[in-house]
Write a structure and sequence with these properties.
The protein has 392 residues and is α/β, with parallel strands linked by helices. The chain has three domains: 170 residues, AICAR transformylase, duplication domain (Cytidine Deaminase, domain 2, 3-Layer(aba) Sandwich); 129 residues, Cytidine Deaminase, domain 2 (3-Layer(aba) Sandwich), CATH 3.40.140; 39 residues, no CATH class. The protein has 14 helices and 15 strands. The strands form four sheets. A six-stranded mixed β-sheet has the order 3-8-7-6-4-5. Helix 13 links the parallel strand 13 and strand 14. The protein is globular, with a radius of gyration of 21 Å.
Length: 392
C-alpha cells in the first residue's frame, strides 16, 4: 500500500486527507482492523518511536498511552506492586506479562488523560495485553506484531471498528524530514539523538550519587519528552512516567501541571482513596472521575448530600489538605526531566514538593547557579545534559 485516504484531517472540514510516501515506496504499516484518522496516525508514529527508544535504552519492553500528539503515560515492563494493581484496576487479571505490565503502568499513571488513548507497544501484543486493552476506552493500537488470539480479541473491540496497526520494525525514515505550514515547506534533520547513561555524566550538584535505577528513570523521562509537545517536563518513578506536563508556554506552569499529576498518582495509593466505598457496578471511568474530584479542591462535587449517594455505600470523610500533605511527604526518589533549561529555582522548589531527588536538564540558563543552589539545598542530584529536546 503506497498511500491511504483518510476520512479527514485534524478536523472534519479539512478535506481531502491522505498519507503517502513521497518516494513512491510502500507505507511502513498495515491496517489490520478499523480505519485510522489523521490524529490517530500522528499519535501512533510518535508513540512507536518513543517505545522503540525506551526498549533500546533499558532493554525492557515498553508501552505508551498517547493523547493529542503527546504521551499521557509511558512505562517499561516491570512487575506491578499490589497497590499499583489496585489503582490501575487490574488486580483481577492475575499475573501480568511484561508487556501487559508496561501498558497497565502507562495507562494507569494518569487515567484521566489516557481516556480514549492511542497505544504503542515496543514488542508483540500478547493475549494478556489485548485483554487489558479490550476493557479500556481507547481509539487504537500500534505494535510490530500480534499473537493470533490477541488480534482476535482486539478485532472485537468497538463492534469491529477498533483501529489496529502493524508497524514494520525494520523501517528507517529518511535523514531529513519535512512539514508544511501556511503552504511553506519546513525541512530539518531528524532528531536521532541517542539517550543513554553517557548523557548523565555531567553532575553539577554537591550530591553526585546517581544509582542505575535513577539513570534508567532519567532515560525514560528524556525519551518521553523527546516526543512530547514543548514546553514539557516529566516526573518518573520506578520505570514509569507519573506526571507529564506538555505544551505550556511557561516552564513553571509545566512543572506545576506535571507535579500535580505526579501527586495525584501517589495520592491514589493512600488509604483514604484505596478505601473509598464505591457501590457495585460503578464503571472504571466513573470511579476515576470521582477519585480525581475527591482528591482535588472540588471534592464537594462528589461528597455533597445528594451527590455521594450515587457513588458510595456510605459518605467518605473529606481528605483534608493536611492529610494529603502528610501522605505526599512519603513520596521519595522521584526523577524529573526537562526538555529545556530551568530558568529559575522555583521549578526545583515545586519539584521537591512532589518527591523529586534526581533532575536531568540541559543547563545553560544565566541563572544556572540559582537552580544548582536550590538543588543543593534539598540534597538533590542534577545532571546537565547539554541537549535540548523541543518537539513541535
Amino acid at each position: 500500500m503506497k498511500e491511504m485516504e483518510l476520512k479527514y484531517g485534524c478536523n472534519p472540514n479539512q478535506k481531502p486527507s491522505r498519507v503517502y510516501m513521497e518516494d513512491g515506496s510502500d507505507l511502513p504499516f498495515e491496517v489490520l482492523c478499523g480505519r485510522p484518522g489523521y490524529i490517530n496516525l500522528l499519535d501512533a508514529f510518535n508513540g512507536w518511536q518513543l517505545v522503540s527508544e525506551l526498549k533500546k535504552a533499558t532493554g525492557k519492553v515498553a508501552a505508551t498511552s498517547f493523547k493529542h500528539v503527546s504521551p499521557a503515560g509511558a512505562a517499561i515492563g516491570l512487575p506491578l506492586t499490589d497497590v499499583e494493581k489496585k489503582i490501575y484496576w487490574v488486580e483481577d487479571m492475575g499475573e501480568l506479562t511484561p508487556m501487559g505490565s508496561a501498558y497497565a503502568r502507562a495507562r494507569g499513571a494518569d487515567r484521566m488523560s489516557s481516556f480514549g488513548d492511542f497505544i504503542s507497544l515496543s514488542d508483540t501484543c500478547d493475549v494478556c495485553t489485548a485483554k487489558l486493552v479490550s476493557r479500556e476506552v481507547s481509539d487504537g493500537i500500534i505494535a510490530p506484531d500480534y499473537e493470533p488470539e490477541a488480534l482476535e480479541i482486539l478485532r472485537k473491540k468497538k463492534k469491529g471498528n477498533y483501529c489496529v496497526l502493524k508497524i514494520n520494525p525494520d523501517y528507517k525514515p529518511a535523514a531529513l524530514e519535512k512539514k508544511q505550514v501556511f503552504g511553506i515547506t519546513f525541512e530539518q534533520g531528524r532528531n536521532e539523538l541517542v539517550i543513554d547513561d553517557a548523557l548523565f555524566a555531567n553532575i553539577v550538584t554537591e550530591n553526585k550519587e546517581l544509582p542505575q535505577a535513577a539513570r534508567d528513570d532519567m532515560a525514560i523521562a528524556l525519551i518521553t519528552l523527546k516526543y512530547t509537545q514543548s514546553n514539557s517536563v516529566c516526573y518518573v518513578k520506578g520505570g514509569q512516567a507519573i506526571g507529564i506536563g506538555a505544551g505550556q508556554q511557561s516552564r513553571i506552569h509545566c512543572t506545576r501541571l506535571a507535579g500535580s499529576k505526579a501527586d495525584n498518582w501517589y495520592l491514589r495509593q493512600s488509604p483514604q482513596v484505596l478505601g473509598l466505598p464505591f457501590k457495585e457496578g460503578i464503571r472504571r471511568a466513573d470511579r476515576d472521575n470521582a477519585i480525581d474530584l475527591y482528591m482535588g479542591e472540588d471534592y464537594m462535587d462528589v461528597l455533597a448530600d445528594g451527590k455521594w449517594e450515587a457513588l458510595f455505600t456510605e459518605k467518605p470523610a473529606v481528605f483534608t489538605a493536611e492529610e494529603k500533605r502528610a501522605w505526599l511527604d512519603g513520596n521519595t526518589d522521584v526523577t524529573l526531566g526537562s526538555d529545556a533549561f530551568f530558568p529559575f529555582g522555583d521549578n526545583i522548589e515545586r519539584a521537591f514538593r512532589s518527591g523529586v531527588k534526581y533532575v536531568a536538564q540541559p543547563g545553560g540558563s544565566v541563572r544556572d547557579d540559582n537552580v544548582i543552589e536550590a538543588c543543593n539545598s534539598h540534597n538533590m542530584v542534577m545532571c546537565f545534559t547539554g541537549i535540548r529536546l523541543f518537539h513541535h
